[in-house]
């Protein structure tokens, strides 16, 4: 399709909002960011380019990209008192719990970028969030493994800086592996934005009341954590490891089909896609490429491929149009890079912060936007009179 997408006037939309950032055709398995197909962006652009595109409507030229990247790099450090904040968590705290807490705490620090009526302050808050998420994520990981925090090194790329803060140690030089940097950047691009998913809708709803932007993003992180949403990448790899061998796949397929069993194939199915999630196609290809380049052979990838093959030929999955989604293959790559499963959703949140702040800006800058107020279908009792407790 080319040209402007417009709603059919007869289309009785249940749409919660209008947005120009991301277009999804769930039946065709199409995902466009401001008109650019996700596979082209994933294969040819960088996460900083996609961040610029989502925030500023157009892909940047070289000069614009350099200026944007420099601006982001000015905000990568975290207030020192926030480093102390980490020490209040238990060492075994889930990194998503830490990320939720620390991002919410940003609202107690950066008061010069919370006047949401000021476009400049909105953009500073957005840049701060995009810039600080890698630092916050890396510190959550370091805290969980008992290693010292590393400060950002702005001579590195956005993604290279994150990898060094995560896997580097003060005692040694850290060389950013270009294969890993490219794989990580691609994963960030694929997770950047996805229309009005649950966590983005949470950010929009929180933001619609005029709430502190940092607190709104913390609300999005909380929602993303759920295993039905962003938490599925951690759950999918744990499921694939639990299956252990292709011979055990039929047992799990049977469980997934059993209505009385709450088990779901993690990384399968989607509220919108009734075809392949285009991001899963890119990640499926990248999984083979990255593991080959890193010289890693992970039996989990074989299990994933066999599970996909069996599920996609099973009538239940065919009838219900259940396909692999973005969370099915991402964990194989993240594990090969060296992340524990507990960090997978943290990485999703790091990348999705770009989409959250872009969607928040789009909503807040609309002069006609009103506070969100979903309604309900009331299913309780009709009106009745109070009965004093002695007579009940
Ligand atoms: C993300 O919205 C977004 O855009 C989200 C996301 C983003 O980028 O923000 O794309 C990221 O959240 C991807 C989804 C990650 N979640 C998982 O992989 C968890 C496993 N998937 C399921 O829990 C499920 O598919 C959901 C939650 C994603 C969607 O569930 P729905 O709304 O029930 O999906 P559906 O209406 O299409 O289901 C149709 C049927 C239902 O059975 P019936 O009621 O018709 O009998 O298929 C069943 C579902 O129970 N079903 C599954 C299944 N997913 C749906 N059965 C087995 N295994 C599954 N994975």
Give me some keywords for this one:
citrate synthase activity; acyltransferase; 392 residues; membrane; mainly alpha; 3% strand; 3-stranded antiparallel β-sheet; transmembrane helix; Citrate_synth-like_sm_a-sub
Give a quick precis of the structure.
This protein is an all-alpha fold and 392 residues long. Helices cover 53% and strands 3% of the residues. The termini are far apart.
Our estimate of the beta-strand percent is under 5%
Helical/strand content category: mainly alpha
What is the subunit arrangement here? single chain
Overall mean pLDDT stands at 94
Give the biggest beta sheet: 3 strands, antiparallel
The CA-CA distance between the termini, in Å, is 65 Å
Weakly predicted, low-confidence segments: 1-13
Characterization of the model:
- The chain is an all-alpha fold and 392 residues long.
- It is 53% helix and 3% strand.
- It has 17 helices and three strands.
- The chain has helices spanning 38-44, 47-56, 62-73, 80-86, 95-105, 119-145, 158-167, 178-190, 198-207, 213-224, 232-243, 249-257, 278-294, 299-312, 315-319, 326-337, 344-364; strands at residues 22-25, 30-33, 36-37.
- Strands 1-2-3 form a three-stranded antiparallel β-sheet.
- Helix 8 (178-190) packs across helix 17.
- It binds s-citryldethia Coenzyme A (SDX).
- S-citryldethia Coenzyme A is lined by residues 194, 197, 228-230, 232, 256, 264-272, 320, 322, 325-327.
């Amino acid at each position: 399709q080319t040209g402007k997408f417009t709603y059919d006037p007869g289309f009785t939309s249940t749409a919660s909002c209008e947005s120009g950032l991301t277009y999804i055709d769930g039946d065709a398995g199409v995902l466009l960011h401001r008109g650019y197909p996700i596979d082209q962006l994933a294969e040819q652009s960088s996460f900083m380019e996609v961040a610029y595109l989502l925030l500023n409507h157009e892909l940047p030229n070289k000069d614009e990209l350099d200026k944007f990247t420099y601006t982001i790099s000015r905000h990568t450090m975290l207030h020192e008192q926030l480093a102390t904040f980490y020490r209040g968590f238990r060492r075994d705290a889930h990194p998503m719990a830490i990320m939720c807490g620390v991002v919410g705490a940003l609202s107690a620090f950066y008061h010069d970028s919370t006047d949401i009526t000021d476009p400049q302050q909105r953009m500073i808050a957005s840049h701060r969030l995009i810039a600080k998420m890698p630092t916050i994520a890396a510190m959550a990981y370091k805290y969980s493994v008992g290693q010292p925090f590393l400060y950002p090194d702005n001579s590195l790329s956005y993604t290279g800086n994150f990898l060094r803060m995560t896997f580097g140690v003060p005692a040694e030089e850290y060389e950013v592996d270009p294969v890993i940097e490219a794989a990580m950047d691609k994963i960030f691009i694929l997770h950047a934005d996805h229309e009005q998913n649950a966590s983005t809708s949470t950010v929009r709803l929180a933001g619609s009341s005029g709430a502190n932007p940092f607190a709104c993003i913390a609300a999005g992180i909380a929602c993303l954590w759920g295993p039905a949403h962003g938490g599925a990448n951690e759950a999918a790899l744990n499921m694939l490891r639990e299956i252990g061998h292709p011979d055990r796949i039929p047992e799990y397929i049977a469980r997934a089909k059993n209505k009385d069993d709450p088990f779901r194939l993690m990384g399968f199915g989607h509220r919108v896609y009734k075809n392949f999630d285009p991001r899963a196609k890119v990640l499926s290809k990248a999984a083979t490429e990255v593991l080959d380049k890193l010289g890693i052979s992970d039996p989990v990838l074989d299990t994933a491929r066999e599970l996909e093959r069996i599920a996609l030929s099973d009538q239940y999955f065919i009838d219900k149009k259940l396909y692999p989604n973005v969370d099915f293959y991402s964990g194989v790559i993240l594990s090969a890079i060296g992340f524990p499963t507990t960090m997978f959703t943290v990485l999703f949140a790091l990348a999705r912060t770009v989409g959250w702040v872009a969607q928040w800006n789009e909503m807040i800058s609309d002069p006609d936007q009103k506070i969100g107020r979903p309604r309900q279908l009331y299913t309780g009792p009709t009106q009745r009179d109070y009965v004093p407790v002695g007579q009940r």
